[in-house]
Amino acid sequence: MERIAQLLETCTTARLLFTQKLPQALGFSDYAHFAKTFKRLTGMTPKQFNQNYQV
């Protein structure tokens, strides 16, 4: 979704993807919903993204 694409473009810290407040700020109902959507769109979990890219 566009919200995750924007996040990936503007994210300045890897830990941002792990915060529990981030999904709510992006309009997701909870972290699990955010993580599932993130994986569907990027092919990796937020944790895998952080490990691979160290934003």
Brief descriptors of the model:
mainly alpha, 4 helices, globular, 55 residues, 62% helix
Describe this protein's structure.
The model has no long low-confidence stretch (mean pLDDT 76). The chain is globular, with a radius of gyration of 10 Å. The chain contains four helices and no strands. The chain has helices at 2-10, 21-25, 31-42, 46-53. The chain is an all-alpha fold and 55 residues long.
Structure in a nutshell:
The chain has about 55 residues and is mainly alpha-helical. Helix content is about 60%, strand content about 0%.
Model regions low in confidence, pLDDT < 50 over at least 5 residues: none
By oligomeric state, this entry counts as single chain
Number of strands: 0
Strand content: under 5%
Average predicted local confidence, pLDDT: 76
Q: Indicate the percent of residues in helices.
A: 55-70%
- Rounded radius of gyration (Å): 10 Å
For the report, how would you describe the main beta sheet? Answer: none
- The global form is globular
Total DSSP helices: 4
What's the arrangement of secondary structure elements?
Blueprint: H1 2-10, H2 21-25, H3 31-42, H4 46-53
